[in-house]
Structure formats: C-alpha cells, structure tokens
Amino acid sequence: MSRSNGASKAKRQQAILSFVAQERLGSQEEIRGRLASMGIAATQSTISRDIEELGLARMHGHDGTRYVVPGDGRAPQPVAMLRRLLDEFALSMVRADQGLIVRTPPGAAAALAEGLDRAGLADVAGPNARRNTIHKRGREGGNPPPREQAHTPKK
Amino acid sequence: MSRSNGASKAKRQQAILSFVAQERLGSQEEIRGRLASMGIAATQSTISRDIEELGLARMHGHDGTRYVVPGDGRAPQPVAMLRRLLDEFALSMVRADQGLIVRTPPGAAAALAEGLDRAGLADVAGPNARRNTIHKRGREGGNPPPREQAHTPKK
DNA sequence: CACCTGATTGCATAATCATGCGTCATGGAG
DNA sequence: CTCCATGACGCATGATTATGCAATCAGGTG
To answer: Is B6's pLDDT higher than 60?
Structure first.
C-alpha cells in the first residue's frame, strides 16, 4: 500500500459505511472523528475520496445535513417481484472487493439474467468495463453479455 | 413579500425540483444557471436555502456528484430501486454459468450490498450468504461503539 | 537488485455550500 | 397613515468538500 496505517482502505471504508448507516454524521470531519475513536487514522482528504468511492450521499433533513447510504429511502411495498425472482434462483450473494457475486444453481444464471432483463435491469451491464478482476470462480460458460445498453445511464 | 422578482419562491423551488429530478446538476451554481436560462434569477445563497427547504440530497455516482430528490429512487415498482442502485454502482454485469457477477468500482461493492440489504433484499439469499461471506448487519472485526446519540452535535 | 507502474494518502488550496446581518416588501394593528 | 413584525433575499464570509501534486510503498519485470 502506501502510508502504513492500522487499517486498510477496505477496512476504513467499511467502517465509514457502518457509521454512516447508524449515526447522524453531518460532516467529513465528524466521520474522521469516529474513525479516530476507533483507531483508524485518516485525513479529511481521504475521507472525501472514500465517500466518493462508496457513492454516499449528503442529504438535508429537518435537523441539518447528514451522510446517508443510497437506497435508504425504504419503499412501501417494494421488492415483491424482485424478491420472488431472487428467492427462486439465488443461492447466495457474495460481496467481493470489486463487485457482487450472485450465485445460482448451474444453468439457472441464464434464467435469472433473463428475469432481470425482462424487469429492465440487464441493460445496466455495458461493455464499459475498465479492468477485469473478478476471480473467485467467475468464468463465463460461453455466455456473451446479456445485452447492449439500450438505456442511457447518466452522463 | 420580499424582493420583487419575476418568480415567487414557490415557483422557483418547483423549478429546482423539476430540474434536479430530470437533469444531472452537480452544483448550486449549475442550478442557478438553469434557473437563469428560464428567466428566474437567484443567487447561490437562495438556492442553498431552497435546497435545504426542499430536503434535497447531493449524491455521489460513478460520474461525479449530482443533486437528487430523496425518494426519487423509490418507484412504483420494486425494480426501479434496484435499477437505480445498479445504475449508480454497477460497471458491468456478466452472466456466469453459476451466477451473476456485478462489477463495481473498488469499494463500492460494500455500498451496493448495504443498499440491497437496506432494501430488504439481503435475506433473499438466505443463511447461505451469511455463511459464505462478510455480512454487514452484524459486526466487523471489532467495532466498539456504533451506538451513539441521534442528537444534533452539529455546528 | 534497479526500475517502472499503479495505488493510496497527506498537504495545501481551489471549489462549493452555508449562514449572520442588513435591506426591502408586505400585511396588520393602532 | 405610521409603526412593527415577518418573510425572502443579496452580500460577504466562514465552514466544508474536492482535488492537483508529490511522496511512499507494494508488486512485477528485465
């Protein structure tokens, strides 16, 4: 790594995520304080970068601003269909360093992908990948990417 | 009222809400420009106050920061939320013979996982997920105090 | 081992956002 | 009509966040 510290980047970010999800942290300086009280040293600069990488959001509330984890806004009666879908095909979800791996019984991946595709989610996957990393047994059995981007993300 | 301007406060805020919901505005200055191009004059100060009153959030994505309407992610259908999450974090999605691999920028996986968890999707994978990997809900290495006051230690 | 490449971080500083204070209008009371 | 209270703003400035640069360190490579 670079500067030797007590905790690695991943650890620090994990901690930030945890704090932000539990407490009302309104500034990076506050976050820095919590990290410090946990033995993790970092400057505001680093935290700013972590926040960017984690994709956190700073939101306004009745009591000022606070950082939050995207997706906090719980939906009323959400995930019904998606839940059913994953419930049927997903064996487990593993969080990797650079992604998420949803495991399914052999062969079922196609079905899941198809389901997500029909749900209008598949187009998120585009050929815009930069580096190839995912290991962990992740090999494609000759299955080309689901589809092209028929949808425009942002930009 | 106050300073007589072309538009009332309500109208201005309505416009801001509308712009933010549709475009990728990353700074109050940009918002100001947008309003101006619509004939509504306002300073950054005013916009800052509007944003607070509207309870908007500034969120980080793979393409920079942007203001968003909280709850904009919660859509009529459960899929919309997941779509939003993936839209923000997923670089690519590859279908493997035994699962799906969602690639994200380094570190963002945790955020995605957290988001899915918050959405009530985590348990879809059942106890398998917990057994196989790190699960955020519980505690990591040794987090002492995530229990703090929800008060306002603001400024 | 010397050298090059990429990652990660601190520092200093630029870019943004938030807010105290004073002013301008509006509306109601006296 | 005059005076006072309230709300909305702009300005200037303090508070926060973002980022260019350079140093440091882990890994390959020749």
So the answer is: no
Mark yes or no for CB contact A71/B110 under 8 Å. Answer: no
A74 pLDDT exceeds 70?
no
Which residues of B fall within a CB distance of 8 Å from A115? none
Query: Checking phi first, is residue A144 left (phi over 0); if not, alpha (psi -120 to 50) or beta?
Result: beta
φ, ψ of residue B128 in degrees (nearest 5) = -60, -45
A11, B141 in Cβ contact below 8 A? yes
Asked if the model's pLDDT at residue B91 lies above 60, the reply is no
pLDDT in tens, B7-42: 588 889 889 988 988 889 999 999 999 999 999 999
Query: Using the CB atom, is residue B63 less than 7 Å from strand C?
Result: no
**pLDDT bucket at B133, cuts 50 / 70 / 90:** very low
Element (H, E) at A11: helix A9-22
Nearest to B134 by CA among A97, A47, A119: A97
Mean pLDDT for chain A overall: 60
CA distance A106 to B119: 27
Q: In which residue are the tokens 């487990």 written?
A: A92
- Does the distance separating the beta carbons of A14 and B140 come in below 8 Å? yes
Cβ contact A10 with chain D strand, < 7 A: no
Query: CA-to-CA distance for B107 and A98, rounded, in angstroms?
Result: 6
Number of C-beta neighbours around residue A91 at 10 A: 18
- Other Cβ atoms less than 10 A from the Cβ of B139: the count is 11
